[in-house]
Write a structure and sequence with these properties.
Number of helices: 3
Number of strands: 0
Order of helices and strands: HHH
Structural class: mainly alpha
Largest sheet: none
């Protein structure tokens, strides 16, 4: 596989990974400041 095709594959895999709304929400929450799991779950209103 050439270099560009490998890059396209990595990009596609990353996009699949990020295609989850909860993962994006976590990134936005952690972008503000560090949070532990309990804080994340509380901010996201989910049970752990």
């Amino acid at each position: 596989m050439n270099t560009m095709k490998a890059l396209y594959k990595i990009h596609a895999d990353f996009c699949k990974f990020m295609a989850n709304e909860k993962r994006i929400e976590i990134l936005f929450l952690l972008g503000d400041h560090e949070m532990c799991v309990d804080e994340l779950s509380s901010a996201m209103e989910i049970k752990i």
